[in-house]
Every structure is written in C-alpha cells, then in structure tokens.
Amino acid sequence: MPIEIQHLSHEEYCYLTTTGRRSGKPHTIEIWFALKGSTLYLLSGGRDKADWVKNIRQQPTVQVKLGSLTYIGQARILSSGPEDELARQIVFAKYIPRSTDDLTEWSRDSLAVAIDLLNEVQ
C-alpha cells in the first residue's frame, strides 16, 4: 500500500541522506523536490558529478526527511521518457514562482532522480 505524503508537498526542501560510496557513512543534503503519489522527484544540476548521485548509483537505498517525518526509499536515476519529463515539469513548476533565477535551463539540463518512498522510519 503506498504511503500518503502529499500533505508534505508544500515543504520548501527535503533532506536526502545517502550512504557514502567510499566512507560508508551517512551523507545528508538539503535539496529541492516535488512529490507525485509516494514518489519524490529531484533534479541534479551537477548531473552525474554530484556526490549524492554517485552515492545513489552505488547504494540506492536512501532516507528522506520531509518536515518532521523520515522515510526509507529506493532511488532511481531516470533516463529520457515520460517519468523523466514529469520530474522536470513538477520540480520546475514548484520552484519557478519562488526563485528570482530563470530555472528553465536548470530544469532542462539537470539529471532527474526518482525516489520511491517505501515506509516511514519510526
């Protein structure tokens, strides 16, 4: 049964914790996100060069903190296709009204990542 998290979609940021590919230690970043159902979408402006993306490639199990709640999830790097387009559209739509920057190039050129949220950490 999918978890219900849509009420957290208004949060400004999420906190993504990956496992360091070399150290094996938790590494947490603050990052923009958008939600669709129980899937969280992120865009990496650094594409494959971002440490968090490199960590996900090695260990796709992650933790995501939204507000005061923390979830376990499975991350997936998206390739061209409908889900990739959805990720770009909904992250862009969420943040364009909040940004003084033109996010068009960022939303087009970033690497899209999906995280399927599996369950809440108690």
From TrEMBL:
Pfam family, one: F420H2_quin_red
Database matches in InterPro entries: F420H2_quin_Rdtase, Split_barrel_FMN-bd
SUPFAM superfamilies: FMN-binding split barrel (SSF50475)
Domain of life per record: Bacteria
Entry-linked NCBIfam families: hi_GC_TIGR00026 (TIGR00026)
Full protein name: Nitroreductase family deazaflavin-dependent oxidoreductase
